[in-house]
Amino acid sequence: MGFYYYLTFSLPDDRKTYKPQNPHTLMARKSTSIRVDEGLWKEVKKHCIDANLEIYEYVEQLVREDLQMKRTKGKR
Fold first, then answer.
1. Which pTM does this prediction carry?
2. What is the overall mean pLDDT for the chain?
3. Rounded to 10 degrees, what is the CA torsion of 42, 19, 51, 31?
4. Cα–Cα distance, 73 to 75 (Å, whole number)
5. How far apart are CA 56 and CA 62, in angstroms?
């Protein structure tokens, strides 16, 4: 996982390159809506800004870690 693809396209803050945080960012995506407590959502957004992550990357990371933990827990 030491390689990254660089994509060029327009972004809201005028950056011209986007460096995905992980190789999963190039996979096909399903768009969805969720309802989240406003205070929690503000914390998530701040965390993602501080960690230089897109929100979807953070959410995917949490889901992947949770599912992996459940898989390994179920194999005992």
1. 0.60
2. 77
3. 30
4. 6
5. 10
